[in-house]
Design a protein that fits this description.
Blueprint: H1 7-34, H2 40-68, H3 74-89, H4 106-120, H5 122-132, H6 136-152, H7 154-163, H8 166-184, H9 190-196, H10 200-227, E1 233-238, E2 251-255, H11 260-272, E3 281-288, H12 301-326, E4 331-336, H13 340-350, E5 355-359, H14 365-371, H15 374-381, E6 386-389
Helix pairs in contact: 1-4, 1-5, 1-6, 1-7, 1-8, 2-4, 2-5, 2-6, 3-5, 3-8, 3-10, 8-10, 11-12, 13-15
């Protein structure tokens, strides 16, 4: 049992918050999508009551899970499940087409929120219960802090994790560590390990991290190769039919994610435009991260596409406004893809792009190795010339 106020308590509290952030982002998106079709006056009430009920249900389920994990062998089973969950975190999501029905009433929205949270929170419940190690104060405080954070900052957290993949990798590593620690403390083997192989208390958590990262990266590499062969799903293209495939004009692609960095690339484009003998055909591209595959079970195809459409146009807005203000013609596109670099390279191939212009974040080579870089990924996956704008 972890005592309140000790260093172990605060460390475990941070782990609970981290597990919730990494595993609960898409749960919060379901809440927003469930209320999407309602009249504006009912949306806030549906989100409030649905979220409140989901929070209570999540706390109850986690407390039950904490008690169940005291039974022999269940921690071993839970550890294996956590390892699987952690590996899945490192794999690209498969895009669901939406299977749920359109939601037309507040009661239906609240019901959808509850059922979706129940189905999608199994990984979260097991992870938090494992970290808490039977400490109810730790469990309640951790959930009280992290669940509202996830609900009210879900869009920001999802974009943050998409921009900095190291967050997902660290979250997966944390789950691998927790899985190893859980296995070592199972009542069925815990006494034997403490007496005969105490070193396993350190070795198993480390092994969990190695297994998750190694297996996850291997499977992710295979998934990336398959991703490049899939046709892109384009949610928004405009102006429609304004020259794609109908011109020999030099085509210039600007990936736009709504960040200040991508806007600097737009500024560089306005400078470069005078360098061309003939003004290039400009394409703005926004890549929407694929939502968790379970989301599609609870919302309609129209709501899924509407979400991608609205988020994409929101992230393109500043770049479009700047080009509109300069009187520069362009086309804009919103596509779905879990791997931004591969999706950008794929789009460039499909649309006959002659040059890609994008901004880097100016990080060091060592930081790029750890954090990953969309620009670096594009360079690796395309034969199209890429012009990089440094910060």
């Amino acid at each position: 049992m972890i005592e309140f106020g000790t260093p172990a308590f605060w460390l475990a509290l941070l782990q609970i918050i981290g597990v919730n952030i990494v595993l609960s982002g898409d749960n919060a998106v379901v809440i927003a999508l469930a209320a999407r079709s309602l009249p504006p006056a009912q949306q806030k009430r549906a989100i409030f009551w649905g979220s409140s009920a989901a929070v209570v249900m999540r706390i109850v389920l986690t407390i039950v899970a904490v008690e169940l994990l005291k039974l022999p062998a269940l921690k071993l089973i839970g550890a294996l499940l956590l390892l699987w969950i952690a590996v899945q975190l490192l794999l690209p999501e498969e895009d669901g087409e939406g299977e749920g029905a359109a939601i037309s009433s507040m009661a239906a929205a609240i019901r959808t929120i509850l059922i979706a949270d129940l189905v999608m929170s199994l990984d979260n419940v097991i992870g938090v219960a494992a970290v808490a190690k039977g400490s109810m104060p730790l469990l309640i405080i951790g959930l009280a802090i992290s669940i509202p954070l996830v609900i009210f900052a879900s869009t920001f957290l999802l974009k943050l994790m998409e921009r900095f993949p190291i967050i997902i990798t660290l979250g997966a590593a944390l789950l691998g560590y927790v899985a190893g620690d859980m296995a070592a403390s199972d009542p069925l083997v815990g006494s034997w390990i403490a007496t005969n192989a105490a070193w396993l208390h350190t070795a198993l958590p480390v092994a969990g991290v190695v297994i998750v990262i190694g297996l996850g990266k291997l499977l992710a590499a295979r998934a990336e190769a398959e991703e490049e062969e899939r046709p892109l799903e384009e949610i928004e293209a405009g102006p429609a039919g304004s020259g794609v495939g109908e011109t020999t004009m030099h085509k210039l692609l600007l990936p736009i994610d709504g960040s200040d960095a991508s806007l600097r690339a737009v500024g560089q484009l306005l400078t470069m435009r005078d360098w061309y003998k003939e003004a290039p055909e400009i394409h703005l591209l926004n890549v929407q991260h694929v939502l968790h595959k379970d989301v599609a079970q609870f919302v309609s195809p129209e709501d899924m596409k509407g979400y991608y459409h609205d988020e994409g146009l929101k992230e393109l807005a500043a770049a479009r406004a700047r080009l509109d203000g300069a009187g520069v013609p362009y086309q804009h596109h919103v596509v779905i893809g879990d791997l931004a670099a591969e999706t950008i390279a794929h789009f460039a191939r499909e649309h006959g792009i002659g040059q890609i212009l994008m901004c880097t974040h100016g990080r060091s080579a060592a930081a790029d190795l750890v954090l990953g870089s969309v620009a670096k990924g594009v360079l690796l996956h395309t034969d199209v010339p890429v012009t990089l704008v440094r910060r």
